[in-house]
Amino acid sequence: MALLKLQFPLQRRVRLAQGLWLLSWLAVLAGAFTFSLGVYLKTELLRRAEVMDNTEIHVVPNILMLVGLVTMGINLFAGRVCQDSLDSARFPPWKPFLLPWYGLAWMVCVWLLSAVVLSYALQGHLEESLKVGLRNGIRFYRDTDVPGRCFQKETIDRLQMELRCCGNTNYRDWFEVQWISNRYLDFTSKEVKDRVRSNVDGRYLMDGVPFSCCNPGSPRPCLQNHLTDNTAHYNYEHQSEELNLYNRGCRQALVDYYMGLMNTIGPGILSVISLQMSVLVSLRYLQTSLDGVDPENPEADSEGYILAKGVKETMMDVKNIMFKLLQFGQVEAGDEAEAGADGEKAATSS
Amino acid sequence: MVLMKMKFPFEKRVKLAQGLWLLSWMATLAGAFTFTLGCFLKTELRRRAEVMDNTEIHAVPNTLMIVGLASLGINYFAGRMCQDALDAGRFPRWKTFMQPYWGVSLLFTLLMLMAVIMSYAMKGNLESSLKIGLKNGIRFYKDTDTPGRCFQKQTIDRLQMEFRCCGNTDFKDWFEVQWISNRYLDFSSKEVKDRVKSNVDGRYLFDGVPFSCCNPSSPRPCIQDRLTNNSAHYSYEHQTEELNIYIRGCREALVNYYMGLMNTIGAGVLSVFLLQSSVLVSLRYLQTTMEALAGQENTEIETEGYLLEKGVKETIMEYVTPVLVFLQLNQVGSEDTEA
C-alpha cells in the first residue's frame, strides 16, 4: 500500500516538471546563500581569533560552507533531470542516478539541521574558549615589548571600546593582574615598593583599570584609579556608581554577539532545509509518475507516490537486502569450510 | 556660419537614434546614482551635525540631489524623443517643447559641474564651521547636567575615539577650558583652590585630557593628566612622546574625512556630467537632422545636422540683444520722465 499516492494526469505532470525546475533554481540560490552565510560567520569568528583559545566553534561555519556547495551541485542536477523529464527518450539515462541523489539530498538536510543544532550546543565551548583567551589577553596586556604578544594591549583595548565591555567576567579581573609593565614603574618610590611587597609573586596590583574600560556615556570624567576607595574621589561611591565604567564583561559581550549572529542565521538555514525537502519530494513524485506511464499511451494518467510500499514494509525490504548481503558472505565461508572438510574425508577414506 | 556641421544619411540617423536611446537610459541610471550620492553625503554630514556650526556645506549634497532628480526627467524625455525620431510624422510634435527643454537641461547640466566645483571651493567654509562647532563642544563638555548640552560629552568622546583625534587643533585645546564640572571638584582641597584662584575667570584649568584622547596603540598605559610635567611620571618626556595620546586635531581629521568623501563623489559626478553632455549633444544633432526633413516627401534622404545654426558669438548676441534692448528702453524711459 503505497505511501501518499497522488494521481497525475498529463497536465499535472507537466506542471510538476515546470514547478520543480523553478524550485531547483531557487534551491541553487539557497545553496549559494548558505555558503555565503558560512563565509560571513567564519570571517566574524576569525576577527576575534586572538581572544579565543581553540577553534572548535569553527565547525559550524565549515559545515555551512561545505553543505552550501553540495546543495548547489545537487540542485543543478535536479534542474537538468526535470528539463529532460518530459521527453520519454531522454529521461531513462538519468534513472540510475536518482537513488543515490535521494540519499545525498537527505544527507544535506541532516547536515544543515545538525549545523543549526551545533550552533546552540557549542555555546558552552565558545564560552570556555573565550574565557581562556580573554584571561590570557588580560595577563599579557603589559607585554608590549615581547615579540608575539606586543599587540595584545591594542587588541584588548579596541575590543573593550568596540564591544563596550571591561575585563573577562567584569572589571574586577583587572585588579588581579599586573597590567602596567615594570618598565613604567618607579621602583624607588615607596608606593610601588609597598604594593610589590604586599603579595607573594611580587606583582604590582592596584584597583585601577585601563582607559578602554571608560564609558563615554558617564556624566563624569572617567575615574580609572582607586576605584574601591570612596575617599579618593570627590562625591564618589563605588557601590552605587554604574555609569563610570562598562559593567559588562567581555566574555558575556562576545557570547551575546555570536549567539545573536547564530540566531539570525538559524531561521535562514531552516528555510533552506524546507526548500531542499520540497525539491526532494517533488522529484520523487515526478520520477514515480513518469515510471507509471504506459509506453503505448504516453498521455494517460499515472500514479505517483513517495514509497511503493508503506514505511514499515520498505524498512523490512531494506533489512532483508542487508541481511542477504551479509549472509552471502557467511554462506560462502561456510561452503568453503564444508568443501574443505569433504575433501579431507574423501582423501582419508580413499 | 554653422557650428560643427555633420552629414547624416538615413542609416546614420537610425544608428544615432538607437544609440541615443541606449545612452539616455544609461544617463537615467546615472541620474539616480547622483541622487543616491547626494543622499549619502547628506547623511554623513548630518551624523556630525553637532560639531558643525552652520549648514552651508549642505549646499553640495542638496545640489546633487536636485540635479539627480532633474536628470531623471531630462533623460526620460530624451528617450521619448528619440523613440519618435525615426518617424518623420511624429517628430514635429516635439518642436514647441524643444526650446524650454534645452534651457532646462543646459541649466541642470551646468549645475552638476557647479556641485563638483563647490565641493572643493567650500573646504574653507567647512573648516571654519568645524572650528566653531568643536570649540563649543569642548567648552560645553562638562555641562552634562544642562538640558540641551547634556550629550556634548558623549558626542565629543565618541568622535575622538572614532576619528582617532584629540581636541580642536591639537590636544592642547583641552588645557584652556575647564572640562571637569564643578560638581566633581572638591572645593575644600588646597589644590583645587589654588588652580581656581590662579586665573581671572575662576576656572579649574590643568594640563590633562579626557580618556577619549588615549591612543590604544601606545605600548604604555595611557597618561592623561600632568602631561607637561616630565617628573610626574616615570620614564616620561612629553616633548618626545608621540604614541600616548592622539596627536591629530579633530578639525583636521574631519576635514580630511569629508574631503576624501567629496573627492570620490566628485569623480563619479564628473563622469555622470560627461555622459549627460553626450546625451544632450546627440539629441541636438538628432533634432537638427530631423528638422531638416520637415516638409520633405522622401524621408530617407541625407540631411545635415549641426550644433548651432550660427556661430557661438552670434547665438549669444541673439539671446542677449533682447535683454539689452529691454534695459535701454527702461533707461530711455526714465530720462524722458525726468525731462
TrEMBL record, chain A:
Topology in membrane: Multi-pass membrane protein
Keyword terms of this UniProt record: Membrane, Transmembrane, Transmembrane helix
GO cellular component terms, A-Z: plasma membrane
Transmembrane domains' residue ranges: 20-41, 62-81, 101-122
PROSITE patterns with a match to the protein in the record: RDS_ROM1
Keyword Transmembrane helix set for record: yes
The keyword Transferase belongs to this UniProt entry's keyword annotation: no
Localization annotation: Membrane
Main location: membrane
GO biological process, one term: visual perception
PANTHER family for the chain: PERIPHERIN-2, TETRASPANIN
Family: Belongs to the PRPH2/ROM1 family.
Name assigned to this protein: Retinal outer segment membrane protein 1b
Organism: Hucho hucho
TrEMBL record, chain B:
GO CC, one annotated term: plasma membrane
Subcellular location: Membrane
Principal localisation: membrane
Entries under CDD domains matching the protein: peripherin_like_LEL
Keywords: Membrane, Transmembrane, Transmembrane helix
Entry keyword annotation includes Transmembrane: yes
Annotated InterPro entries: Peripherin/rom-1 (IPR000830), Peripherin/rom-1_CS (IPR018498), Peripherin_LEL (IPR042026), Tetraspanin/Peripherin (IPR018499), Tetraspanin_EC2_sf (IPR008952)
Entry membrane topology: Multi-pass membrane protein
Domain of life (superkingdom): Eukaryota
Family in the record: Belongs to the PRPH2/ROM1 family.
Protein name: RDS/peripherin-like protein xRDS35
UniProt xrefs under Pfam families: Tetraspanin
BP terms from Gene Ontology: visual perception
PANTHER family tied to this protein: PERIPHERIN-2, TETRASPANIN
Segments traversing the membrane: 20-41, 62-81, 101-121, 255-275
Record Gene3D superfamilies: Tetraspanin
